[in-house]
Amino acid sequence: MFKNKSLRLLGSAAMAAALMVPATVEAAGAKPVPAGSTVLSVEGFINHAELGKKLQSIQQSSQGRVKVEVAGTSNRGRAIWKATVGTGKKVILVQSEIHGNEKTGTVALVNILQKLGSNSAEAKKLREEITLVAVPMMNPDASELDRRGNDYTWQEVLKNYPQLQGAQPSWNYYTRVLQGDDYAAKPGFDVNRDFHPDLNYVAKKEDFPGSSNQPGWYITPESKVVRDIYKGLKASHGNVDVFVDLHHQGFPYVEGTDKVVTMSLSGQFVPDPRTPAGAKYSKYAGNYQYDFSRQLNLAAYNALQAKGNSIFTHISLYEQGLDLPGTALGSFALNGSGTVLFEVKGQTQNYGQKMKGQLVKTVETGLEAIIEGYADDSVYKLNPLDYEKIPKSVYTPFGI
């Protein structure tokens, strides 16, 4: 399906956040942006209504090979769709727009669904090996507001979880104007800090406000939808073998160069539970698949390096040594998934249509390499230690 017969791990170049409470913290994970950087319209990206129409069109044109379902709804009642293609035993779950101003991955996922649902012999072969579940735009309220956080007040949390009365708002709750986004008028949460490795966890007052190196709580509707998709796949297939999360990252440089990173990759979000540093996660040690995660990341890295064009070869390793069990990636890694983080440069409003196209192709190329490499088992031929050789990302202060 993804054409390059000489390199099985290469992808195709053709696939291209109301009531107020006191402010709590800085934006958890907010990405550095250069002073004076251009802010452009995001109208060229897919909005929520357009995504619904596009997914239905793909389902029809694929003659049902791509199955589209409403997996749940956001806090403001918008549909969160999942699209499933393939009947294979190897399960890959991919999500985009957990942060609503990180939109490139949604376009890439739509393109990949179109190709996987086609009638080509290559698509048919891949469908026999894998089951791909895509959750494009998993945080639609944030997407419509073009911001990082969802649209959900602490008062709404207390209404939905009365056992939390008297608790302090969670540390990832935004309540003020931040990087141009008015959370004072519409507070919200960083949904990607609301996951917990205990997939059956129920929020408890004593676990608030929490911190970045502690698990989340599954209090946001959006995280619960993805958690339930994940649990459902584990129940039906035995495991979610691969989990990929599509993000944007601001403007780091490739370490030791003056080159702005096109995309960073990572397979590490909590300390290895098999080591002293990860001892607090020791009960998950038997699930942790770090070598497999590194191999998956290498598949994407190698495919992008092999393209030759410099815009695609400025690929780096995202910050390592993280302890973020409240992220989807951290929680799902502890549950046995090989994990991959994609962080393309900038935020969606920093680039025009030409750069959008290049970044979409970057995401597609990496995703295709992971899909193909896992489908034909060639990913297992990669040396996990080569992951450590990927150049690192470094941020240069921009006076912000």
TrEMBL record:
<dbReference type="GO" id="GO:0006508">
    <property type="term" value="P:proteolysis"/>
</dbReference>
<keyword id="KW-0378">Hydrolase</keyword>
<feature type="signal peptide">
    <location>
        <begin position="1"/>
        <end position="27"/>
    </location>
</feature>
<keyword id="KW-0862">Zinc</keyword>
<keyword id="KW-0732">Signal</keyword>
<dbReference type="GO" id="GO:0005615">
    <property type="term" value="C:extracellular space"/>
</dbReference>
<dbReference type="GO" id="GO:0008270">
    <property type="term" value="F:zinc ion binding"/>
</dbReference>
<dbReference type="GO" id="GO:0004181">
    <property type="term" value="F:metallocarboxypeptidase activity"/>
</dbReference>
<keyword id="KW-0482">Metalloprotease</keyword>
<feature type="domain" description="Peptidase M14">
    <location>
        <begin position="44"/>
        <end position="400"/>
    </location>
</feature>
<comment type="similarity">
    <text>Belongs to the peptidase M14 family.</text>
</comment>
<dbReference type="Pfam" id="PF00246">
    <property type="entry name" value="Peptidase_M14"/>
</dbReference>
<dbReference type="InterPro" id="IPR000834">
    <property type="entry name" value="Peptidase_M14"/>
</dbReference>
<keyword id="KW-0645">Protease</keyword>
<protein>
    <submittedName>
        <fullName>Peptidase M14</fullName>
    </submittedName>
</protein>
